[in-house]
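$ ./design --mode recover --in tokens.txt
reading tokens...
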């Protein structure tokens, strides 16, 4: 078995002198320092943007109330006598203006107009902390058999450092409207773990007037009437919680009330989000189950809530989220594989999972769910990455369903049988990209002695380069494996590149696993490859 591993370092040839290595280290250190400052500035700008949007919304509400007052007093001769002529003129002009009506939440939930307090929490316990990096939302309702809320909060809070406890807020949303007994029970469970006065924890509950009549919902997708009601109310609960959380932090993480977390989960999520700050992602997934561990950027919550409320009676929340991604990036004229590649740029999976589902008894009465995240206990053997959309293919025979497509999306490893001369692994990019350097290194923590030889690295430029020697199918060889490593620079004249290929030039007696694939615009970072082929990324900076 052969394994390729990567290192987090500036890509430099091994023949460079020591002083170059030291200079590279210093340069990398400075870049990291500046990157942290940039991320801190970006967070502050996002918080400022959230506050600006909040103030704008408040001003619009005041303006709307002003218009209503003017409309109500329009027929009274004495109503405006206390104002100057100029003021009266301005007020009449304001009242006469009739702008187009923009669809809003009241178009989807018209019953909210019957009660002014429908969008205000009926119960709120906590300081209302804002300006944090991360907001974690936990919806909960009464479970007939057992509540897991106390265990969940204990796991989340005990695994936060003192500094992290000041940089986040945990919101428990109690979706109960039939009396305060259950709400008080949830508050007691939370209060036994940490005082609300610290600002870390909040408990909210919506007013009964927030919910529409859920008795006559249409049964769809073979679900029972009770299940349709349950999933519809769940969509409304998520929406209320997100609307409350949108202005409180930079990132919002959706959790459930029956989970446990890994140590250092907060720092891992935050660092991963910052690492991808330049990427156009919409969802970061820190668990493969349901709606657990899904991170969003706060500004995206408004779009998500609006979409959910448009179709809250139609489908479950996880289906609606997938539809949002489809609407944003999928081309109806392309096939399903192309759509999945496009969606993968917006929905990024982190492995291993940071949260494990522990609840056996569902909040849906009578439902038993034996769901566990198989990735929860797996060690992290590679650095997480985001790959540009590409069509992947291979001549190797796949073993037990471990496909190359899943590997490129970060969902699985690729497992193939006995590579022979002429076999290949091909990455054809949807759009040509620029490549500066590449590095393939064999071996990882589990297989440090496993290496690969007799495989070349090849690229297909967008346009032909006559002065360079090429293969019969117009690929150019830019590297090969020596002592388990292939690294080097790509001549800039080759850019942009349409495809990258790994070609086996000699038979191998072992099987092949490709466990991680990482490519990036501007640079191809180290990948891992086991023949067992594995691709692992490293953070490489142009030199």
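writing sequence...
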């Amino acid at each position: 078995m052969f394994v390729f591993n990567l290192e987090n370092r500036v890509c430099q040839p091994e023949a460079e002198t020591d002083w170059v290595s030291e200079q590279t280290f210093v340069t990398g250190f400075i870049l990291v320092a500046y990157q942290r400052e940039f991320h801190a500035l970006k967070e502050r700008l996002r918080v400022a943007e959230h506050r600006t949007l909040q103030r704008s919304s408040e001003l619009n509400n005041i303006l709307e109330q002003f218009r209503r007052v003017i409309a109500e007093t329009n027929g009274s001769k004495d109503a405006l006598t206390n104002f100057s002529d100029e003021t009266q003129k301005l007020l009449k002009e304001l009242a006469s203006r009739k702008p187009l009506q923009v669809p809003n939440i009241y178009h989807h939930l018209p019953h909210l107009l019957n009660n002014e307090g429908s969008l205000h929490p009926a119960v709120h316990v906590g300081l209302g902390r804002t300006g944090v990096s991360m907001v974690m939302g936990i919806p909960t309702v009464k479970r007939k058999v057992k509540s897991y809320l106390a265990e969940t909060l204990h796991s989340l809070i005990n695994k936060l450092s003192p500094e992290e406890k000041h940089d986040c807020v945990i919101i428990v949303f109690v979706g109960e409207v039939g009396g305060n007994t259950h709400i008080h029970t949830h508050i007691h469970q939370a209060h036994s773990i940490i005082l609300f006065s610290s600002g870390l924890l909040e408990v909210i509950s919506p007013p009964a007037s927030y919910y529409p009549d859920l008795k006559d919902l249409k049964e769809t997708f073979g679900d029972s009437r009770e299940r349709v009601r349950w999933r519809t109310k769940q969509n409304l609960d998520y929406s209320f919680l997100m609307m409350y959380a949108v202005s409180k932090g930079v990132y919002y993480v959706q959790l459930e009330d029956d989970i446990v977390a890994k140590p250092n989960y907060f720092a891992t999520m935050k660092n991963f989000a910052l690492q991808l700050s330049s990427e156009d992602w919409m969802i970061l997934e820190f668990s493969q189950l349901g709606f657990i561990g899904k991170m969003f950027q706060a500004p995206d919550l408004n779009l998500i809530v609006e979409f959910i409320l448009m179709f809250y009676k139609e489908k479950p929340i996880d289906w609606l989220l997938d539809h949002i991604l489809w609407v944003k990036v999928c081309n109806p004229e392309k096939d399903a594989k192309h759509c999945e590649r496009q969606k993968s740029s917006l929905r990024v999976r982190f492995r291993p999972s940071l949260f494990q589902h522990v609840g056996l008894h569902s909040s849906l009465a009578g439902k038993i769910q034996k769901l566990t995240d198989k990735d929860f206990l797996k060690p992290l053997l590679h650095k997480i990455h985001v790959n540009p959309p590409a069509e992947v293919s291979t001549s190797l025979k796949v073993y037990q369903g471990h496909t190359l497509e899943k590997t490129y999306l970060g969902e699985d490893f690729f497992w193939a049988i006995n590579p022979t001369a002429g076999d290949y692994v091909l990455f054809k990019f949807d759009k040509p990209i620029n490549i500066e350097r590449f590095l393939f290194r064999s071996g990882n923590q589990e297989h440090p002695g496993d290496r690969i030889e007799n495989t070349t690295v090849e690229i297909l430029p967008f346009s032909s380069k006559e002065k360079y020697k090429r293969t019969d199918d117009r690929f150019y060889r830019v590297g090969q494996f020596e002592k388990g490593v292939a690294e080097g620079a790509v001549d800039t004249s080759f850019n942009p590149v349409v495809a990258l290929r790994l070609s086996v030039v000699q038979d191998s007696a072992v099987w092949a696993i490709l466990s991680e694939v990482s490519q990036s615009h501007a640079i191809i970072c180290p990948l891992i490859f086991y023949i067992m082929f594995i691709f692992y990324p490293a953070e490489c900076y142009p030199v």
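exit 0
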